[in-house]
Amino acid sequence: MTPPRPALAPREAAAPTRRPRRTQRAMPTLIFTIPLVLTLLACGRTELSIASADPPQETPPPACDPDAPRSPFDPPCSPTTCPDCGPNAACAQDPDGTPACQCDAGFAEDPTGIPGCVDVDECDLGLDRCHPDARCLNTLGGYDCACLPGFEGDGLDCRPYVPDDLPFIAISAGGLQTCAVRQDNTLTCWGRNERGQSVPPEGLFLDVSAGDQHTCALRLDGGLTCWGWDRLGQSQPPEGAFIDLSCGASFCCAVTDAASLSCWGRQSGGVLDAPQGLFLDVSAGGTMACARSTRDALSCWGSGAGQPPNLRLAALSVGASHACGLRSDDSGLLCWGSGQSEALNPPRGAFTALDAGSAVTCAIDPRRRLRCWGALAPGAALLDPPEGPFTALTVGDRHACALQPDGQALCWGDDAFGQARPPRGTYTAVATGNLHTCQIRTDGGIDCWGDDRYAQSQPPQGDDFVAVAVGHWHTCALDADQRAACWGNDEYGQLDAPDDRLLSLDAGESHTCAVRADDGQIRCWGRDQFNQLDAPQGAFIALDAGRFHTCALRNDGRALCWGNTGDDRLRAPSGAFVALSAGGSHSCGVRADGQIACWGKNSAGQLDAPNGAFTQVAAGDEHACAIRADGQIACWGRDDFGQATPPEGAFVSLSAGEGFTCGVRDEGALTCWGSVAR
């Protein structure tokens, strides 16, 4: 049994191999060649001990030159390099060692046969690992996962989003507790809780009213829910649908959807004996209640109510044993009842809102400042309210709270049980990008959420920021000194902001532009593949950056755009504009008469703006939204994720991203709709 001999090079003979000799004890000296030794060993003759020898060296074949003359008997040349592999591919070796082109991860061979590899849409093919409550977003060579609205996480793991420190839309101060309705219609309470009055139920609510040791709230479906002390039935509301609610010390009253009155709780001095008739709203205090009828007549009942004035009131509020109202003719305040004289003597002047507590009443004047009056004891701490501005207020027994325009609550007075310390965390400005969003807090700091692969959601420390602009994978902001700071991806110099004083700025996908404060000239930095950095000369008053283009307003209101020329997105219509917004491949502007004009790509109807008068417009990727003169929002264009289906209510500002939109309500609360990455 002879093992195979090493392969010989063509036309080359094997040279004889000499083996060293070795003498064996009690045996004659023998000389074996390797084949014979192996044969003996294979046949069981293992008593021999043969000196070791180096194995025969295989002679490597000569280098193969495909262009050199070759004999028909020569073996074929194997390639040593790959041909042109094309984009998204690289040269590698097959298992047999043959060089071959292989696609990069996330790519597949081009089905048309063109050299190179094309992107694999893992989302469309179901190859992603996104959570069931996440949206899959295909990217070049891979994919991203973003949790759907109402959920939070990294996209691979999504869980229901529990809001924290959201702005308030309604607030009520009771005896020693305060409750508020957050922007997402959930409830939160703080303060004294010996009867459970500060532990609100789950659910969605429109309004809340706090009594002495109990609280009631009006649900979105019109029903009532109460909690806290119930010894006198004050936490057992009637069935039915209601439109208004107010709680006193140990009782509550509500207006039904049929405009009638219903009261429950402690019966003292006839406080539950509501009159018959049709009513608009109701206010309950300590021992009395009042309501405005649909005929503008005023009715009061209970202990100490007295005879109400025969006047038309725009608003009213009832305290412990007194009531105050705003005259409909804007002639000022009027108070009545059996309370102390200080509570019945309101200040002179015009006011827009008021609320009466146990012994102190406060009101908001047209400049949104607070004025308070009433007894020194026990409400002396309430007579020195904080500086404004404020949009709403509530006065309790010994403490009061007011809402600032950004939705933040500010409380003052007795704080023995924390009733004057509301949760913090509200914002003044918001900017949306592709997969992340940033907000400016009321203290001047910045919070961001969403995609963070390049740290674009990790803003710098500081509490003096006044504006923020969000790009695709980078973010920039202006501080109080009008200097720009940028963070996130810097692949194309997106973070190289100029050292100029800037009036405003806005970010596109990978570029940012700003208006200089000194001369109105525009400076741009970042990626320039479509000449989006080549800003025109001249003085400008505002600008807005789209994905690959930017538009700006000259001093005379004319719009001028530059950057990517595709889809006619740079052809702004003639005439003057007062506001504009650049989206993915289109732009929209608001004319002086409030009408909206849009230009550019119209793949999803994003140019089909509705008629009417508008004050602001925000263009997203393939949709746009605008604020009407009355604050309501209208949207048009692509709506596959609800980005063009706005909520009800009045808004003061907007920002649109790729598949979602965010708006700031008139009371300062932030609301987002569509596919929000948070």
In short:
This protein is 2% helix and 39% strand. With 678 residues, the protein is mostly beta strands.
Plain-language structure description:
It is built from two helices and 50 strands. Residues 1-63 and 416-424 have low confidence and may be disordered. 2% of the residues lie in helices and 39% in strands. The protein is mainly beta and 678 residues long. The protein has a three-stranded antiparallel beta sheet with strand order 9-10-11, with no helix packed on it. A three-stranded antiparallel beta sheet has the order 12-13-14, with no helix packed on it. Strands 15-16-17 form a three-stranded antiparallel beta sheet, with no helix packed on it.
- Which strands sit side by side, in order, in the main sheet? 9-10-11
Uncertain runs are: 1-63, 416-424
Largest sheet: 3 strands, antiparallel
Measured by DSSP, the beta-strand proportion falls in 35-45%
> Can you give the mean pLDDT?
81
> Radius of gyration in whole Å, from Cα?
39 Å
Distance between the termini: 74 Å
Number of strands: 50
**Helix/strand structural class:** mainly beta
Individual helix count? 2
